[in-house]
Amino acid sequence: MTDNQQVPFGSGMFQGQAKFVDYAHMNQQEVQVNTLDEPVMDTLLRDINMILYKLSYVIIPRMKETQGRKLRNWDLWGPLLLSLLLAMTLGINSNQSSDTIFGTIFIIMWGGSAVITVNAKLLGGQVSFFQSVCVLGYCVFPINVAAVLITFLQSYLGFFLRLIIVGAAFLWSTFSSLSFMSSMMNEEKKVISVYPIFLFYMFLSWFCIFI
Amino acid sequence: MQIADEQQDVQHSIPDLDNVNIKLGDDEKKVNQISSNTVSQVQQPQQVNIPMPPLPQKTADPSFLSQLFHCLFKGLAIFVFFIPEGLLNLTYCFIVVVILSAIDFWTVKNITGRKLVGLRWWSEVKEDGSEEWIYESQVANFIPNPFNSNVFWFAQFGVVLTWGILILLDLIGLRWFNAVLAMTAFCLTGINFVGFYKCRGEHQKKAKEYMTKIGLKAIQQW
User: For A140, which of A27, A60, A196, B188 is 20 to 30 Å away at the CA?
Assistant: First the structure.
């Protein structure tokens, strides 16, 4: 097998290419960061920086796709932690059994992300499955903030104030993920692929207010 | 080459056939000549440049800390899974097992895989959105410590097997919640196992190529 030869790998939706990195034959210029011997702290910090970068992308949504290139390195830590946090927060808040709420929110978040991604792929979008799930998960962050605020300031907030906070969070989330998703799709199919995202975040925000 | 100090007057040093010591008695002279003949024949420098293949890298010392961490989170996850519902609310059990499995996934993928068996895999997304899986391994003549390697592979495979059996048991016993949890953990450990298995296959191919290359070079030089 020659160096860096690509071979097909996987099937269907998870199809990709596999590349074998051969350090023995690479020139100095070709060698990527040799991550095999790096100290543990480096690995840890690198991943933490990736997570923080993505969070900053959500907080300050940028419309240009070129600036979001680092988003390509998807990781599911953000969606995992955010979904757990959201589900726990809403579970604490609610009148109903917190187990049910937890399960519902968790499944909605992951199932919803999966469905939106499949929708986008079926409409011809050039986005990888995990990357899309990653972005949708990270964009739940504003709704998470709103949920935490509501939980801790429960007694001080009237209904309308809650509505305003959650509304702002919802708009923020949708806008953040729009700039990513719409850049992946063709012009005519943009609306139909963005609409489910709108619904998704609206559903989650609804939970914040009324549960 | 000096064979022994007491024999210094006898010239066993490398090879000057012309300078055989003829001051000794006949027998000794014969012996010397014979032995220096053989010595010189054996040691006549050859004019061929065989690049000495780098010796196999010293196998790494068994690294107990990495082995401990490798098994720790997996074991804890399975342990918490078995805590009965009376003691631990199902929700908290789910959260804890999922978080432990995720931490284990990251640890094995990024740390213990490197330290114990010198392999690494990850995926990148290319410009057109397609995924690319990348495998990385140490240089071709790297041999991991057998203890490390055994612990790594047995633990990983054992855990995948355990979660698989648990899924079956839970499905048969109609405990859906536990089954879903077991499936999640199975997916996480399974993905790691498959990734490393493929990476190891690639490394073995690389090692074989390297050995063939060395063999060919040696044959060419004869």
Answer: B188
Q: Residues of A with CB below 8 A from B99's CB?
A: 84
List CB contacts (< 8 A) between B90 and chain A: 99
The rounded distance, in Å, linking the Cα atoms of B121 and B108 is 11
Is the pTM higher than 0.80? The answer reads no
- Under an 8 A CB cutoff, do B125 and A131 touch? yes
Tens digits of residue pLDDT in A44-89:
888 888 888 888 888 877 655 555 566 667 788 889 999 999 988 8
Q: Which of B89, B114, B130 sits opposite A16 (nearest CB)?
A: B130
pLDDT, tens digit, 9 for 90 and up, residues B147-174: 888 888 899 999 999 999 999 999 999 8
Tokens of A68: 């979001």
* A73/B125 touch (CB, cutoff 8 Å), yes or no: yes
Q: How far is CA B133 from the centre of its chain?
A: 21
